[in-house]
Amino acid sequence: MELNNWVLTHEIQIRLGFFFGVFAIMAAWELAAPRRALTASKGVRWANNMGLVFLNSLVVRLLFPAAAVGVAAFAQAQGWGLFNYYQLAFPLAVILSVIIMDGVIYLQHVMVHAVPLLWRLHRVHHADPDYDVTTGARFHPLEIILSMLIKFATILLLGPPVVAVVIFEVLLNATAMFNHGNVKLPSSVDRVLRWFLVTPDMHRVHHSVEDDETNSNFGFSLPWWDRVFGTYRDQPRAGHEGMSIGIHKFQDPKQISWLPGMLILPFRGKVSGYAINRRQWNSD
Predict the structure, then answer these.
(1) How far apart are CA 71 and CA 151, in angstroms?
(2) Residue 276 placed within a domain
(3) Between vectors from CA 105 to CA 226 and to CA 27, what angle results, nearest 5°?
């Protein structure tokens, strides 16, 4: 209980500390050893992608002041959720909670690719013309709201320890920045690491303009879900240096690199090509 109280008190500092720390490491790594040459203005992309991050943070704080850790504390106080009903050893409850919540993120990711209406929102993430640390946090505010609601429902049903929720949030943010990094890992290291963690080369395939490659490698932190559910793809056909990033039909910088364009992107055009259950590959 004392640990939970300490985590509740310092949750914001913990999350911000890890966010800025990992972001700085990845940004420096990208400068020192980039995997691909960027195709668009880095200054424009970073300013607008981070502007979207700031907007999303503001929206979340206004709509959900308690945040996920507050919902976990509430569920614990009410005795709601699986792990509040069935008492497990604390370390086991933490580990299982993090794994299960990561599995829900995988299923959510598949869902936003499968449902055309939700793909409209998610394509803001995929329309980024380049792939780097800022891409990992580039999501439309409406998708962020949907994600928060799914996360809250998961916490209320699961009843995870407060510590587990904070660990999951930190892990999700850190791995999203890591696996979206424009960084070069030795192939021998990547082959081993991707059995335990989603690597940049593994997830980059998911950002290919090719529809079948986009609809693979949905994992964010743990790589096992893609292997278990048959959505794993080892490498892009064109190779990591030769593959194209983004979405066919969305190439106008005003739509894909500037904040106003990103905010209205879900309301543009038809949905077909990249939504899993709309197998019409001639438009987006």
Answers:
(1) 10
(2) no
(3) 90
Instruction: Give strand ranges (E) for 162-213.
Output: none
- What is the gyration radius of the CA atoms in the chain, in angstroms? 19
Instruction: Tell me the CA end-to-end span of the chain in Å, nearest whole number.
Output: 50
pTM of the model: 0.91
DSSP bridge partners of 250 = 247
Dihedral angle of Cα 195, 126, 272, 233, to the nearest 10 degrees = -20
Structure tokens at 232: 């794993």
Instruction: Please report whether residue 132 resides in a domain.
Output: yes
User: Are 215 and 192 spatial neighbours (Cβ–Cβ below 8 Å)?
Assistant: no
- The tokens describing 177, both together, are 């920045």
39 belongs to a structural domain: yes
Q: What angle do CA 145, 147, 152 make, to 5 degrees?
A: 95
Show the domain range for 68: 2-267
Number of domains in the chain: 1
Residue 256 belongs to some domain of the structure: yes
Residue with tokens 């794993």: 232
The pLDDT tens digits of the residues spanning 240-262 come to: 999 999 998 898 888 899 999 99
Q: What are phi and psi of 127, to 5 degrees?
A: -75, -5
Q: Could you tell me how far CA 232 lies from the centroid of its own chain?
A: 17
Chain segment 175-225, per-residue pLDDT in tens: 999 999 999 999 999 999 999 999 999 999 999 999 899 999 999 899 999
Q: Report how far residue 181's alpha carbon sits from residue 177's, in angstroms, rounded to the nearest whole number.
A: 6
